[in-house]
Write a structure and sequence with these properties.
Elements lengths: L12 H9 L2 E4 L6 H13 L4 E4 H4 L9 H5 L8 H18 L4 H25 L7 E4 L5 H6 L3 E4 L9 H14 L3 E4 L6 H10 L2 E4 L7 H16 L1
Parallel strand pairs: 1-2, 3-4, 3-5, 5-6
């Protein structure tokens, strides 16, 4: 499937047919992923035998204490590599249960994936060494879980899913200037108007981060490098 912002996403007729035949659906499961909840209700009605594996309910964030509402409301849990280790194990276990004949291959695939994930986590940890507590500025607050795991602090332009008003825009510019922000991160599918205004006021660059890229490992590696370069 090609890239699509989740909120307005509607599955194609072909995808609905495939889902109707599926035995397993892996869901993000976060309560703020309302679009997913709506589609899952329809899916259960069309395919009552399907197993729904809920990642959010089946895993816990290692880093969560004192993070506040912004962290709790952020559904982008897949941007936390450590949490996704548990998710991968849960998916492997469910696949093996549904398809015992394929269990040896699933176990091997999991071992390979966990090795890649551990390598990625180590790379990001080394990349962020000495940058603990640094802040980076994004339009859409998708990176709370990533920031928490690696000791960073996310600042967001968007508030409760809305463009900032004039007063909030001025406050964000002042705060970003105090923090020495040099890069403003935007995201495909969202307006970059306010981000460009802020960047212009700061003399900062505008760059894109993609929390929805298809290649999860390489995208997190690339995104970590962008964030580290922006705050170093």
């Amino acid at each position: 499937m090609s890239w699509c912002r989740p909120a307005p996403y509607e599955p194609s007729p072909q995808q609905l047919v495939a889902l109707g035949r599926s035995r397993l659906y892996v869901a993000v499961g976060h309560p703020d992923f309302l679009f997913e909840r709506r589609h899952l209700e329809s899916l259960r009605g069309a395919n009552p035998l399907i197993t729904i594996l809920d990642i959010a309910a089946g895993t816990e964030a290692v880093c969560q204490a004192g993070q506040g509402r912004a962290f709790d409301d952020d559904p982008h849990i897949w941007l936390d590599p450590r949490r996704m280790r548990s998710a991968a194990s849960n998916i492997e276990a469910e696949l093996a249960r549904l398809d015992p004949d394929g269990a040896p291959q699933y176990r091997q695939n999991l071992r390979d994936l966990l090795s890649d994930m551990d390598r990625l986590d180590s790379e990001i940890t080394q990349l962020m060494a000495g940058l603990e507590g640094r802040r980076f500025l994004v339009f859409h607050p998708a990176w709370s879980h990533f920031a928490c795991e690696y000791g960073l602090r996310q600042m967001a332009i968007e508030a409760e899913g809305k463009e900032p008003g004039p007063a909030q825009l001025v406050a964000t510019i002042e705060e970003a200037r105090d923090e020495g922000i040099r890069v403003v991160f935007v995201q495909k599918g969202f307006s970059d108007r306010s981000a460009k205004v802020i960047a212009s006021e700061l003399g900062a660059q505008v760059e894109s981060l993609d929390p929805l890229a298809r290649d999860w490992l390489d995208n997190l590696r690339l995104s970590a490098g962008q964030i580290a370069a922006a705050i170093r």
